[in-house]
Amino acid sequence: MRDIDNLGKWALRMLQVAIACEVILVLHTAALIAFWQNVIPVEYAETIDSSGEFVSVTYLAVIVVCYVVCGRWIYRASFNAAIMNPHSERITPGWAVGWFAVPIFSLWKPYQAMRQTWNSTFHSSSDMDAPAPSMLGWWWAGWVIMTVMGQISLRMTMNGSEDSYATSLWVDLAGFPVAVAATLLFMQIVQRVTAAQTRDNVQDTFA
Predict the structure, then answer these.
(1) Of 16, 74, 86, 159, which is most buried with the most CB atoms under 10 A?
(2) What is the Cα–Cα distance from 30 to 184, expressed in whole angstroms?
(3) Residue 22 pLDDT more than 90?
(4) Contact 136/118 with Cβ under 8 angstroms?
(5) Structural domain that includes position 35
């Protein structure tokens, strides 16, 4: 098995940073909504606009790094799980990450891969496609909802009309608690799988 402890720690750090960025982003979104509703005076428009550019660039950079680090963790966890419970029909470590980028299949394949990783890690003698704890289901439901809401917001923003843009801000605001909840649940998954695979790795080393 490959060591996953350090990678798990980095994944947790980046997920914490991502939550912090979500908080900053939602505060800026709330400021935009207040501006559109004339709660904030028009003379603050330039300040809101310039801060928005900084917030957006920072958020995007953090999310990209977070995806890369967490993608590596998913690959490593899947790789170790395959050693703990070899099976010819298992989703490969590469596809455990790759399915996230495939339209339609991304709605359930990554969850299936994570369920196999979880079951192989904690119940190596049982069916890797057996039902997993509800935590995994809630995490994945949050991820799918967050992704769908993100697409809706993006399409509204690209529509070009002021009404669509204003509505997209409310969609972003509504998506904030979903994104945070999904991230917190994923952090729990990372913590538990990392701890279990690290413990198993140590036992193999000193066996």
Answers:
(1) 74
(2) 22
(3) yes
(4) yes
(5) 5-205
Q: Cα separation of 204 and 202, whole Å?
A: 5
Tokens of residue 185, six digits: 């649940």
Q: How many domains does the chain have?
A: 1
The pTM assigned to this predicted structure is: 0.89
Contacts 24+ apart (CB under 8 A), 162-170: 166/33, 166/36, 169/29, 169/32, 169/33, 169/36, 170/33
- pLDDT average, residue stretch 122-127: 78
List, in order, residues 6 or more apart from 84 with CB less than 8 Å away: 1, 120, 121, 124, 197, 200
Chain-centroid distance of CA 206 in Å reads 35
Cα separation of the two ends of the chain = 13
Contacts 24+ apart (CB under 8 A), 138-141: 138/181, 138/185, 139/182, 139/185, 139/186, 139/189, 140/110, 140/111, 140/114
Mean pLDDT of the chain: 89
For residue range 137-153, list pLDDT tens digits in order.
999 999 999 999 989 98
The predicted pLDDT at position 198 comes to 92
